[in-house]
Every structure is written in C-alpha cells, then in structure tokens.
Design a protein that fits this description.
Length: 524
C-alpha cells in the first residue's frame, strides 16, 4: 500500500483518488452485495411436505425445510468434510469406539430453553428407536449415550467405527436435536409445530399451499465461512415462505411473475428459453453437478422380478444415455454406479455395466422362461423426472417384449412402497449420500441385502476404515455384486438447476441440491 500511495503522491493525485473512492463507495452498485437484514423470500419447491418431525421421514423435501428449523451435531461442508453445528468440537478415542462431543453453550430451542447434554442424549436415543426412525438400524453399534456433564456427551460403540460421525451428518433425515417436553405436548411426535434450535422457527403449514418459517432472533450457531451445510448460519431474512409448485409450467410462470423469488427446481426444458430470454430479465440460473441419483429398483423377492435372468435382460434392454436424456434433457450424466462421478471413492470399475443390446435382452427373457406376465413399474408425477424415466424405461422394456404396466401413485404412497420393499419395479430417486457405505444401504429396499450377506459385511467394513485404498476396493466389490445381481439399475446423477432473481443475494446452489437460505438477503 505504501508503494501505491507514494506513486499517487508523486503524481499529485492523492486527493483525487480518495475522492473517487469515496464517490464509488456511495454509488448504488458499489455496495450492492453488502448483506442487509429484513424482508421475506418466497421459494418454489417441486413438492409439498409429508411430515414435520425430523426423525421420522426420509422424504428429501422434508429435510430441505427442516434443516432451517433443526440442527444436527455435525454437517457436511462443500468438500464433504465434517463440520460442527450443534457442538463446538468432538473427538474419538484411539480405536474409534468412544466419541465425545462438546456442545455449544447458550444454544436455545425455539421455546427459549437452552439445549444441553440431556437433550442430545434424548435425541440420539430417539433416532436409534426403530419405532420412530427409518435410520435406526444404522445406529445399531451404539451401546450407550451418556450426558457426562451439562455440555458434554459421550457416545459408546460396541466396536470400532470410524464412520460414526458420518451418521450424525445425515442430510436426510436431519439427525436433529429436539426438546423432549415439546414432543410430549404433541403426543410423542411433531405433527404441526416442530421446535428446534435452527436459525428459523416453524410458523405455519398449509398443505399444498405454503410453509412459513420465521427468523429466530435468539439464534446462536457455528462460526466461520459458510460451506455447504456447515459454517455460520446468519438469518438475514425475517421470513421464508416455501410454496409447492409441482407443475413445471406453473412454477416457471410464478417465477417470471415474481410470485416467487427463487425456484428450487428449474425444469431442464426451459434452459434454452432462459439463455435466449429470461437472463435478460434479471434471472440468474445456477447449475451444479449433484451427488443425488435416480434409479429403477427391482423387488428381488417378487414374482417375475425374482428371476435373475429377467433382471439381466432388463439391464441389456435399457440404454442409460437415452433414459438420462429423456429424464433430464441433457442436464444429467448417466452413471451405472451409486457413487457419483468425481467422488474420490469412485474408480473406473464403476463404469462396468450391461451394454445396450436388445437381442441379448430377448435371448435372456427366453432363458428366464418369461411369457409376457405383467410387471408393474411404480412411479409418481410429484418428481417429474421419476415419471419421465419410468416412461422411457417402460418403452425400452416393451420394445424387447416385457409387459410393463405403469402404476402412477401419489408421492407419499411411492415413498412408503419403497421403504417397505413393496414393489416389482419402482422408479425412484435418492438424495446424495456423501458416504458410499450409506448409499449402498439403499439396497435393503430391493431385498438384496437379505439374500447376499456379503453386502452387509462390505458396508460394515467400509464404515470402520478411513483408508481410501481399502474403501475403493470394498466399493468395487459392492458394485460387482450389484452388476451380477441387478437389484437396481442406476441411471444417472443429475445436475441441480436453480433460478432466482438478481435481487436475491448470497445464494449458492450446493452439491446436495438443498436450497439453504441462511446467509441470503434481498437487495430491492
């Protein structure tokens, strides 16, 4: 700086430069990105909530909303690093069988009571209850959760488990800290008024109309730069209104009319119109490769689909690239593996899959003894890509002689069928699982994990090691099993397309696709 000042003085321009800088600082555009408090944002979602209790559902939309209301102990940063949220720090003993968490002091629930160790103990034990949480089985290694003192929690495991912190950072559902007394008031489950520790309070839910969140003025949270779901959580906005807009054309019209300020799911078919027209109006479009995947499950214990040769025939009949194009119109990339491209855990072996070969498919159907029996493919229109890919898969299978019948159901029905394994075939999508061991846990839904015990062994071994080379070998073996057994057909990882008006500041699309609205403000 001294050198620059010297040159300015030498030129006799010091006061002119200072005047210029002052003028620029007062100009409207110069400080446009300075955060502002106040106002409310309206966000378009592609579907409505199905539940407001953070522990009971794995619907992505619920997690999107509830991450603003509740907080986990740990969360993933942009590079999938683990970051503290409701705790300040944590450590493990030498063999990773005991974990100690040091809580943030002064963190309040929305009812005004301080969150303490007993709340963390209650919350984790609730997540471990199979009657409450669909994630309970993943916490089976926990033998005890102890409140060592007011701000210290100790979790003891029955064996070394290096991957345990990843369980606490689940993005869906939120492994949230909840107040026992508020659950008791609502009969043991949050039904319409959840209470958390997040930067926003849950104010109102009008099904199929809107969800309203309000700023929690007494919020205190992590420090440091925002990163993914980690870092500081400053609530600049007074209110967040989230509106379900499942119809693509309706969502685009709402955005263009400024009835919403941000659209969580920007339909791929409108990207060309954005480039030609919408961008000129002041809309901003973000596109980020995501971790999430879409697939078709087979019920390996159901009639017809329990035949391995039938499933292999289906794999040969489906051109992954064509289905991907049909579903996401060029804004996704086919991927036969549950591990996203670009992941450090992925190797070239994960590209191994059945090359599109209709003749081979027909030959295998004959070997399987398939005689045209109807096969039901369940799907929904709530997530339009699930429907589009189902239509494309149906066409591909019908072309080789498979009698596929689409069964279009409401989203809660499809979710229930998926979790229970109640299907022959099911078109589905999953939120990103940064830890592949947890991604392979989805095989439970197809029924394969029950018939191939090695899958469970691989998952458990992967959760007990941090060695990258060993993990890659384990995940290659898991992929080999899915290749041989075809419990699902992984189709693609899709890009997250989100759009907002240029007066929405501080917004960033992240690789989980969750629209995170802390750190966001309005400049209008």
């Amino acid at each position: 700086m001294s050198g620059i000042c010297f040159m300015l003085k030498k030129a006799g321009l010091v006061f002119t430069a200072m005047a210029l800088l002052l003028a620029l600082s007062l100009a409207p555009g110069f400080a446009a990105d300075k955060p502002k408090f106040g106002g409310g944002i309206t966000v378009g979602l592609n579907t409505d909530l199905t539940a407001v209790d953070p522990h009971t559902s794995v619907a992505v939309v619920n997690a999107i909303v509830l991450h603003h209301v509740f907080e986990p102990l740990l969360a993933y940063g942009e590079k999938l690093e683990l970051m503290p949220v409701a705790c300040e720090s944590w450590e493990a003993n030498k063999d990773c069988s005991v974990y100690t968490f040091h809580l943030r002091k002064g963190k309040l629930f929305h009812n005004g009571r301080e969150m303490v160790a007993e709340d963390v103990k209650f919350s984790l034990e609730r997540v471990m209850d199979p009657k409450v949480s669909p994630r309970a089985k993943h916490f089976s290694s926990v033998t005890a959760v102890e409140a060592k003192d007011k701000y210290t929690v100790v979790v003891k495991l029955n064996k070394p488990f290096a991957g345990f912190p990843h369980l606490l950072a689940y993005i869906n559902p939120v492994i949230a800290m909840v107040p026992k007394e508020e659950l008791a008031k609502q009969g043991g489950i949050f039904k319409d008024h959840p209470i958390g520790t997040g930067p926003y309070m849950f104010a109102e839910w009008k099904p199929d109309r809107y969800i309203l969140l309000k700023k929690f003025d007494k919020y205190t949270g992590p420090t440091g730069a925002r990163s993914g779901l980690g870092g500081e959580r400053i609530a600049y906005l007074d209110t967040i209104k989230l509106v379900p807009l499942p119809e693509e054309s309706v969502s685009i019209m709402a955005l263009l009319n400024k009835e919403i300020d941000l659209l969580q799911y920007f339909p791929p078919k409108y990207v060309e119109k954005y480039n030609k027209d919408y961008a000129k109006k002041g809309l901003k479009l973000n596109e980020v490769p995501g971790l999430s995947w879409y697939q078709v499950y087979f019920g390996v214990g159901k009639p017809v689909t329990n035949n391995l040769k039938f499933r292999q025939a289906c794999a040969y009949a489906i051109d992954l690239d064509k289905v991907t194009q049909a579903a996401y119109l060029g804004h996704a990339r086919s991927n036969p593996s549950v591990i996203a491209r670009g992941s450090v855990y992925r190797t070239d072996y994960h590209d191994t899959w059945y090359k599109y070969d209709p003749a081979k498919a027909k030959a295998l159907l004959k070997e399987a003894g398939y005689k045209g029996e109807p096969v039901v493919l369940d799907t929904t229109k709530k997530y339009i890509a699930m429907f589009r890919q189902a239509v494309a898969v149906q066409a591909a299978l019908q072309a080789v002689g498979v009698n596929v019948k689409l069964n279009v159901v409401e989203w809660p029905v499809l979710l229930k069928k998926c979790v229970k394994g109640d299907f022959q075939m099911l078109s589905y999508g999953a939120g990103g699982a940064p830890n592949p061991a947890l991604a392979y846990a989805y095989l439970k839904r197809s029924g394969l994990e029950d018939t191939v015990p090695r899958l469970k062994e691989i998952k458990e071994a992967a959760l007990m090691t941090a060695d990258l080379g060993q993990l890659q070998k384990l995940y290659e073996e898991a992929h080999r099993i899915t290749y041989e057994q075809v419990p699902w057909i992984q189709l693609y990882n899709y890009n997250y397309l989100q759009a907002h008006w240029n007066y929405v500041k501080g917004y960033k699309t992240i690789n989980t696709g969750f629209p995170i609205l802390w750190g966001v403000w309005l400049d209008k």
